[in-house]
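Slack export, channel: ligand-projects

TW: morning all. Re-posting the request from yesterday since it got buried. We need the structure predicted with the small molecule present, not the apo form. The ligand is coenzyme A; the SMILES is in the block with the sequence. No rush, but it would help planning for next week.
GE: picking it up
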Amino acid sequence: MPKIVISTFSIPSEVLEEIYGRGARECPSPNEQLKLVFSQERPFDLVELEQLLESVGWNRRPIRRVRRALDNSLLKIGLWRHDPKYPRLIGFVRCTGDGILDATVWDLAVHPLYQGTGLGKQLMSYTLELLRIMGVEKVTLFADPGVVSFYEKQGWILEPKGHRCAFWYAT
Ligand SMILES: CC(C)(COP(=O)(O)OP(=O)(O)OC[C@H]1O[C@@H](n2cnc3c(N)ncnc32)[C@H](O)[C@@H]1OP(=O)(O)O)[C@@H](O)C(=O)NCCC(=O)NCCS
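GE: finished. pasting the full token output, ligand included:
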């Protein structure tokens, strides 16, 4: 895995805020030329978001429903490849929950071109940092089967063999 570097030429804070909103933070990058930013406030182009999720193999969802899901989410975090004119969305995660006791992580994705360089791990760690600041006490997620060890490596506790987990699907 390429070493994560923090570029010596960081994006000025006023530029960060103007393009990515309040609280935006530069994300350590695997490549000195590549500037990456976490943002909770930069609005998503929902077509771009769905293209990102499609690029990792997920089915497209109706844009109107995605918009409502985002509106109702506790946190939605974009990982952007910085460009002063055309920032590109290369990673995403969102959480639902009450923001006090519980939260659930959904839709974690890093574009395939950028996978394997530590960005998924950083996106999760940034998300948990924000949830911790909110005071959330318990975070859950439903991992795709091929990704369970990604979470396990980061200290997530696996649900013990169907003893505590239940699902209901509308279809
Ligand atoms: C899962 C995903 C977000 C990981 O992002 P990433 O940027 O490639 O992961 P990282 O480079 O941060 O990997 C961190 C560590 O997890 C490991 N890892 C990455 N993907 C993994 C996987 N699918 N299974 C097991 N381990 C994995 C890495 O090898 C690395 O290990 P290390 O710390 O020992 O070197 C990304 O692969 C992705 O978007 N996948 C498709 C969508 C998806 O499945 N999302 C999760 C839904 S539950």
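GE: first-pass observations. The domain at 13-153 is CATH 3.40.630.30 (Aminopeptidase). Residues 1, 56, 108-110, 115-121, 143-144, 146-147, 149-150, 153 surround coenzyme A (CB under 6 Å).
TW: perfect, thank you
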